[in-house]
Design a protein that fits this description.
It contains 10 helices and 16 strands. The chain is an alpha+beta fold. It folds into 2 domains: 172 residues, Ribosomal Protein S5, domain 2, CATH 3.30.230; 139 residues, 2-Layer Sandwich (Alpha-Beta Plaits), CATH 3.30.70.890. It has a 6-stranded mixed beta sheet. It binds ligand 2P0.
């Protein structure tokens, strides 16, 4: 469909607005975590982070321009969005409209196949899909780096879901516009690595403290925060080398210590930010037992009680079977694709 609008001024970043577009994106799990911003408005992180994009839990988002509408309309899994989720989507669309120099409101329809709000990164796939669909609908032609920077403004971790496989999100340098330009994700070359993430669900309900609030409290009050940022820098350097070597055991060890360190910074916040539940610790115990039995399995946890266990693809079934005794559900994820537009015929 093509809508007739006054022609927008020509620029290399503009193309005729498609009027509507659908995009698909997948969540990513950080092996070196993003926890804390140095600029809340521009969503600039305190440190670099590194992730693997999954091949499960996709988000599909359609953006349709609505020239007659007075306000954006946003639905999430058929339910109208309100309050904070609605404000975040409209604020993001405002960024796209400003760049496209267009004013029409939009109808946004998002379908998540991931349990929303359970620390399983639905905002990463959500804003990556929205960035790709909205820019196409409004006629912006952005390359992957620019899409990553834009997706970052919706949710920091979304910058990484623009890319498939492993991605590194640069914290960027300086402040203001310079920092904005230099903070984006890029795909990371890795060696021969057959990695899987077994996702152990212990609670799929929404979290009590949003990651946005938890991050801010940690940065502002945790005495362990700065040391963790410093150690995260060293972890990242070691992680890149381990990925290049295709050394799964080193990748797992670094990921596990980085995640536990992040949770330690949160526990030291005032008041404490605690996402781990008793069942989380039971999964961690199971992972330790797997290692004692000779299986290379390593845990990472995000802003929720669920655990993601990194292991070799060949071990994933065994790891999932073992974790089923302590988790309510398990899923096996492998390296997934980057965010992309879906064509009219559904490809
Ligand atoms: C990560 N998390 O690196 C970390 C680890 C959660 C724990 O990125 O405020 O939803 O929208 O930028 O991206 C979750 O944070 O936060 C997250 P905002 P986001 O995956």
């Amino acid at each position: 469909m093509r809508l007739d609008h006054p022609a927008a001024p020509n620029s290399p970043h503009e193309r005729p607005a498609a009027g509507h577009a659908t995009a698909v994106a997948h969540p990513n799990i950080a092996l070196i975590k993003y926890w804390g911003k140095r600029d809340d408005h521009l969503i600039l992180p305190a440190s670099d982070s590194l992730s693997m994009t999954l091949d499960v839990f996709s988000t599909t988002t359609t953006v349709r321009l609505a020239p007659e509408a007075a306000a954006d309309q946003v639905t999430l899994n058929d339910t109208p969005a309100a309050d904070e989720p609605y404000r975040r989507v409209t604020a993001f669309l405002d960024l796209v409209r400003e760049r496209a120099r267009r004013a029409e409101r939009a109808v946004v329809d998002t379908r998540n196949t991931v349990p929303t709000g359970a620390g399983l990164a639905s905002s990463a796939s959500g804003f990556a899909a929205l960035a790709v669909a909205a820019t196409a609908a409004y006629g912006l032609r952005l390359d992957a780096t620019e899409l990553s920077r834009l997706a970052r403004r919706g949710s920091g971790s979304a910058s990484r879901s623009i890319f498939g496989g492993f991605a590194l999100w640069h914290a960027g340098r300086g402040t203001g516009a310079d920092a904005d330009l230099s903070s984006y994700a890029e795909p990371l070359p890795v060696g021969d690595l057959d990695a899987a993430l077994v996702i152990a669900i212990v609670d799929a309900g929404p979290k009590a403290v949003s990651s946005r609030v938890g991050m801010r409290r940690t940065v502002e009050t945790s005495p362990l925060y700065r040391p963790w940022v410093e150690s995260s820098r060293a972890d990242l350097t070691e992680m890149r080398a381990a990925l290049l070597r295709g050394d799964l055991e080193a990748v797992g060890e670094i990921a596990e210590r980085n995640a536990l360190g992040m949770h330690a910074t949160m526990l030291a916040a005032r008041p404490a930010v605690r996402y781990m539940a008793p069942a989380t610790l039971a999964v961690l115990d199971s992972v330790l037992r797997l290692r004692q039995d000779g299986v290379a399995a390593y845990a990472t946890m995000d802003a929720g009680p669920n655990v993601k266990v990194l292991c070799a693809g060949a071990d994933a079934d065994r790891v999932a079977r073992t974790l089923r005794s302590v988790a309510s559900r398990t899923y096996i994820a492998r390296r997934g694709p980057g965010a992309c537009l879906r064509t009219e015929d559904g490809r």
